[in-house]
Amino acid sequence: MSQPYRTEKGGQIDRDRKISFTFDGERMEGYECDTLASALLANGVHLVGRSFKYHRPRGILTAGSEEPNALVGIYRKGDQTPNLRATQVELYDGLEAISQNRFPSLSFDIGAVNDLLSPLFPSGFYYKTFMWPKAFWDRVYEPVIRAAAGLGKPPKNPDHDRYANLYAHCDVLVIGAGPAGLAAALAASETGARVILCDEQASLGGSLLSETTATIDGKQPADWAEDTVADLAARDNVTLLPRTTAFGYYAQNFVALAERVTDHMADPDPALPRERLWQVRAKEVVIAAGSIERPMVFPENDRPGILMAGAARTYLNRYGVKAGQKVLVATACDTAWQAAFDLADNGVEIAAIADTRKIVPEALMTIAEARNIKVRTGCVVTATQGRKRVSGALLGHVSSTGAVSSAGDVACDALLMSGGWTPTVSLYSQSRGKVVWDEASGNFLPGAHPQNERSAGACRGLYGLNAVLEDGYAAGEDAAKSATGKSAKCTYAVATGAHAGEGGTLGDLPNDRDASRVKAFVDYQNDVTAKDVKLAVREGMHSIEHIKRYTTTGMATDQGRLSNMNALAIASTALDKPLPQVGLTTFRQPFTPTSFGTFATSSRGDFFDPVRKTPSHQWAVDNDVVFEDVGQWKRSRYFPKDGEDMHGAVARECQVVREKVGLFDGSTLGKIEVVGPDAAEFLERMYTNPWKGLKPGRCRYGLMLNDAGFIIDDGVIGRIAEDRFHVTTTTGGAAHVFATMEDYLQTEWPDLDVWVTSTTEQYAVIALQGPLARDAIAPFISGIDLSPDAFPHMSVATGTFSGVPCRLFRISFTGEIGFEINVPRRHGTMVWDTMAAEIEKLGGVVYGTETMHVLRAEKGYIIVGQETDGTVTPDDVGMSWAIGKKKKDFVGKRGLARPDLIAEGRKQLVGLLTKDPRIVLEEGAQVTKVPDPAKGTSAEGHVTSAYHSPAAGRSIALAMVKDGRALHGKTLYIPMPGGAIEVEVTEPVFVDKEGGRLNG
Amino acid sequence: MLLIECPYCGVERPELEFRCGGEAHIARPEDPSGKTDEEWAEFLYMRTNTKGVYAERWRHIHGCGRFFNAVRDTVSDKFLKIYKAGEPMPDLASLAKEAGK
Ligand SMILES: [Zn+2]
């Protein structure tokens, strides 16, 4: 028979719409509005997974997002999403679900041997076992553990779904659409306040959807919920978000919501995202998160078929599903009795109600009697049977001394339990609220309000439908008043029936068993038992935070919502300390597991980071460039021809630049326009060099320090006019230099009349370097006399390039004659293409950053960030000449006089030549005095740059070496795995030491 | 994410638009060369790093670009006062008292 556990009628499922789905390949049927969990239960399937550590068979425990056991994989579009809670997966036609954490099959799982070996897996097992031997960690323990443990398998392919992101603002955000949340939304929206109401379930209504004994304004609770939702939906100032979990509460009422947009659809519109991240800034928040039923901690409380009484009631009343045919109810509180009564009224045999309390309310006894239900008071469950589904339980009488004596066995095919209710304070706690222990109810409740929020209903320990509704209305009114200053009259709906109920228990229950052989689970998902918590205390874990980490209790995906209170109570008893003194662990975001896709939203692939392209980008692509990423920039690294490798291409590029001419895209250079009457004074203070004497039309190399005296940037600065400088910075330093200039200008020297403007993106920079550079540009430049006398090295002038305004610099980073053409960015590609064609006629070459690096290293020009590392002074790199000695002050001047910066023994820039000219050193390698230094010897320095130099015909290197300038001609060593490399210390210049080539 | 009100733009904007610039009211000495090594090291490196009410620099870097100062409770992350650069440091003790610390 199909769906043998389905009731004849009732529930909010659509019985006219049958839905076909598979679980582990087996085809089954359910109805529209089922969850996967309710449909499986309708088919009599309780066993849905294996536990994390012991691989014990596990069944559906709850009906909500706190579900610890029923984690499944869902196949879609050829891939699988793991670890979805079957209680939240909505059924659609063709849904394919698989169980997890089992091999080879769910009913026969080899890993279950862990259960028999469980004495080997006590709490702290990982810490204890993996101390020794160290090598076993990587090779034995970890692979074995990883294969055996875990939850689900990660998908194999990149996520093919889209995820969306939006920001929203509202006056009142209501979290949770149960009775309190609906009432709060009604009251708040009545004032005209903008309200967002979200709930993690598909249907709004929360506990109202499972409640059948009460009425609200004369209606069935589910009908009242439906009407209320329709009312709210019709209000323009209300946004309803079903299937939306508020998973994170951050500072200043910033709340993150994850909306599941398409997971419930059989055939979703491809235009829709799978999930949507809402980042809501709410003036006021109403938390109406409800409460969660606590499991009872008795031996073998984890068999399939054992589930929460409230969940069983939800399955019955909302989904028309009976948890079993013969049901035992074990409880410590009133609410589970109603589950028994509802099931009995639907033809389910109630084997017994076993209540831990000696005395239960008379009213309940009367109702039970009327239904002929056996009641056992003062009774606990001491054992359960049944491997893949519970088949019976042993009961025990608890005497006044706490001793347990057998009270016979009960056969059953389902066992409902209820240890009472725990208010859901997770979001309140995330808002940085401190929970307060309430002795009367035995719960932690929200305390003072660090943010503009209030809790309403069961999440603040209030029970009884009418009280919860009233609290919701009041919270909504209060929130709207605080947010908008407005109030409005709202008629409160009145509920009758559904009494609050009493009772509850915390911690593990007594039994008459051998304690060493009993597994009574506290945290189902992490397989933590009461025994584990006690052991942790015995072994010295006295803080609840330590117990949590040692046992992993409360660290599962439900964040301890099911387990924390029981674990705490057990620890409290073991520590012999009152429970509130043991303290609750901190609840952290996210409230439920949230997909990486939702966090990443559209920031994936091409949108992960912006890509900055230079004017020559397309030309480079067309000419077989190899790019390198420099920050966000794509820079041309080299241009291989005819199967050349990098070495070959760079050697050719270098040679042609020195012999003829090379074309290089320098557009990534940082550029800052410094303008104003005090521009020169400002640069005097920012750079080590003097600027006031620099004539317009001339350039100077500038060195920037921080106030500690260390080099942070460099670049050529051209004086365009008395009051205008064109500053260049390194590619990587552009943003920082600009920010530093603004900082000093705004906060230290606001009296200076200067404007600084970043022009990095506004100018394209096309560089020509080499003996034929002038010939290359001459045909296109107008308005500038390019002759060496009129326009010598370190000049700048404005003119035109093919009619386009340009700033032309005569500067060199290669030691050759060099020009840099600065044109508005939109003309950059034209200039590039023009010059690329022109140099081809001259036999020139286009070169990339690799060649640029070699050419400058041949000349000993430093690169900030390569030769320097934030601890290098100008003198260290031989640039004392760049310091304006007469200046009273500049940023870094006082720092340079600090004792450590003028001490002997600082590392200085030198050149290194290997004895074997073919060996290119490794950048970063250590430099030592002897080939085989003793262990513990400090290095004398390190290699900063190393290349093969075509011009020198050998390898060259730059290094920072202790007192290096005094070591020219001496031999040092570079110890490497294959033996030390002998090097000779030289000047850091390898080509054209006189510098004559610059001035042609 | 914090909301910060730029005193120049006069609007509240998300933290993303701003950059924190460390402790406020540490002026660069007028005559650095006249400072001893200890004084200079103090200026460069020593910060109070308060747990509690703290005056710090912020810059509306993706907005108007201006630097300003703010008093923030580093425990609750709440801004107690935001003011323009150049204005004197408010009385932190009385701000703390107002905030109920
Ligand atoms: Zn601003």
From TrEMBL, chain A:
This is Sarcosine oxidase subunit alpha family protein. Residues 617-887 form the GCVT N-terminal domain. Keywords: Oxidoreductase. The keyword Oxidoreductase applies. The keyword Oxidoreductase applies. It comes from the Bacteria. GO terms for molecular function: sarcosine oxidase activity. Gene3D superfamilies: 2Fe-2S iron-sulphur cluster binding domain, sarcosine oxidase, alpha subunit, N-terminal domain (3.10.20.440), BFD-like [2Fe-2S]-binding domain (1.10.10.1100), FAD/NAD(P)-binding domain (3.50.50.60), Probable tRNA modification gtpase trme, domain 1 (3.30.1360.120). GO terms for biological process: tetrahydrofolate metabolic process. Residues 519-600 form the SoxA A3 domain. The lineage of its organism: Bacteria, Pseudomonadati, Pseudomonadota, Alphaproteobacteria, Hyphomicrobiales. Residues 171-430 form the FAD/NAD(P)-binding domain. Residues 907-992 form the Aminomethyltransferase C-terminal domain. Belongs to the GcvT family.
UniProtKB/TrEMBL annotation, chain B:
It comes from the Bacteria. One of its GO terms (molecular function) is sarcosine oxidase activity. One of its GO terms (biological process) is tetrahydrofolate metabolic process. Pfam families: SoxD (PF04267). This is Sarcosine oxidase subunit delta.
